[in-house]
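Figure caption, in words: inputs first, then the predicted bound structure.
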Amino acid sequence: MRAALKTGCWNTDDLKPYKQIKDEITIDHANHVLLHGKRIILQSSLQDRVTKLAQLGHQGHSKTKALLREYVWFPNLGKLVKLAIDGCLACQSLAQPNPSKPLLSTPMSDHPWEHVKVDFCGPLLSGHYLLVIIDCYSCFPEVEILQSTSCMKVIPKLDSIFARHGIPVKLTSNNGPLFQSQEFKRYMQHLGIKHHHSTPLWPQGNSEVEAFNKPLIKAIKAAHVENRPWQQEVHKFLLSYRSTPHSTMNVPPSQLLYNCQIRGTLPTLPRKHHLIDRHAEAHDNNELKKEKGRNYANQHRRTKRSFIKIGDKVLIKQGKRDKLSTNFNTTPNTIVSVNGSRLTAERNGHKVTRNASFFKKFKGQTQDDDYNMNYQTNISHDNESNELPQEQLLRRSTRPKTQTKLYGEPIISSLIP
Ligand SMILES: [Zn+2]
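Bound structure (zinc ion present):
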């Protein structure tokens, strides 16, 4: 190829695939490599090996291709990635039956490590939990392996993460018992962190964490398939994930957090100008992706705009208890607060806060007084404290099923105290 660059003769069979980019090829004399843009052009003897290295995180087709394209260039990159994934037992056995829908991304925050989201994954088969923290700006993830989700175990792990990246201004979590505890509240106050609770039963509001947890769990399952220690595989996965262009921003999370390229398993050039600034690029891509996501949602989901206002009577979506249970609870509530798509309904002094999609405007005659008289005594109404176990149950079936009550009515079971 070096000869062809000098002579301009690209007509041999082995050079054909490179002919299309011949005008964009440069030579890095210092390192004796050919570049396409900033990427190293890989010779054919290395292509297979590097593709397999990129596949080690089991991140799937598009992420593996994105990771490779961040560092190297070679013809038929897509084809080699497909071959590598088709030949990977872990990836094949863990393949999703249906391609996942694009997630609606929430806006990036203004600065790295200013707003973080926290969640737990697990318990895993080993009994461990994973504490997951994601930076809303860069999508840079931190994962800690825990024996339990008690304050005593979690707070020292958070300390160590905050020591690494600094104390965030805002932390968003779900309404799990730990995040509602006095001790956690005091910890947040002490560090001066604004603690925000996400809308109950609305995992879409936590899309960064959800989008991360899926491949993380897949990597752990892949470790089981390949008979490797899963704790080690989590580190391998994290290195991969942090150096792979993120699906919405198309910039690796590590570059947005550190302003430099971290060294992963793929070949890179020693960089003289180490600092990089890809923040504007990430913002633009994020906006573009959001627009696409909105269009997709409008086309594929029946995204009914909520015209529910304060004072409206509504029914609340409920979990399925048996084949006969209805999708919505049959007891009307009254909307008392509207905050964007986050609505709060009240009945007999008990409040329920959910995303708008959980409410259905009740158009019939309400006969609220009759309801109150007939059901007040035997319906224990949903409130903030007894809805927690159900949230866990719905979001992650692997969690301990300490469910006490579903919407409205107590479950009659001798197993539930
Ligand atoms: Zn794989």
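Residues 55, 58, 88, 90-91, 222 surround zinc ion (CB under 6 Å).
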